[in-house]
Amino acid sequence: MNTPAENEDNMVNQAVHDELLKKFRVHFGREPEVVAYAPGRIEVLGNHTDYNEGYVFSAAINYGTFFAAASCSTSACRLVAGDLMKEKPAAFPQDWEPGLRRPQWRPLWLP
User: Fold this and answer.
1) What is the pLDDT of residue 24?
2) What is the tens place of the pLDDT at every residue in 4-57?
3) Which class for 89: exposed (0-12), middle (13-18), buried (19 or more C-beta within 10 A)?
4) What gap in Å lies between CA 75 and CA 90, rounded to an integer?
5) Which domains does the chain have, with CATH numbers?
């Protein structure tokens, strides 16, 4: 059972989600194919040490980030900040195919 605060957070997130869909439809003239949400967190101790096997003290917060996307037939990518409704064009190489290449992670060495 949710607490009143959790119910309020869910309602706020639902309102943000609904506003995102509305702005996406108006700006792009169609429905998004993917909508995702990443919950927020704060790090009180150990920021940037977790990937070096260090200790981290973090906590979830009631803020997060929504993301909506749809495919297109070109290499163009149109990024829009939903709060500002400003667009930033970007492009991927013509031969880029998602999922075929994995990033090459390198260890972080500090002097």
Assistant:
1) 94
2) 555 555 667 888 899 999 999 999 999 999 999 888 888 887 777 767 777 888
3) exposed
4) 9
5) 4-91 (3.30.230.10)
